[in-house]
Amino acid sequence: xxxxxxxxxxxxxxxxxxxxxxxxxxxxxxxxxxxxxxxxxxxxxxxxxxxxxxxxxxxxxxxxxxxxxxxxxxxxxxxxxxxxxxxxxxxxxxxxxxxxxxxxxxxxxxxxxxxxxxxxxxxxxxxxxxxxxxxxxxxxxxxxxxxxxxx
Length: 151
Prior knowledge:
By secondary structure, this protein is mainly α. 88% of the residues lie in helices and 0% in strands. Mean pLDDT is 93; it is low at 147-151.
């Protein structure tokens, strides 16, 4: 059971690292070093992969935590809370991929700055919520009940 818990924490922690790197380092660097329209095209090309990787990393965490919730007595509430957070991450990333990203891309291609700004703001909020869920999940699973032998 520890392996499932470790898998969940590792997957979500990896995704948090990717999110932090992309959001705080890569995207800002692109916009500082190359022409804005080109930087926007590069980021737009990367985002579908970014969201798919997030889903790819969060689904195993969700499955592991659901398995722990159903298969153990010790820590069941904690694992269920973690599963809810992982499920929220999958839902947020899926929404960003299937709804927000196409809206932003359509607005960008149409040159509709107002719609693009609204879609971009929505994407940033979804990203922040996903980060908060991930940080909560890692804190919950990594820093609570770690000394118990029966988990």
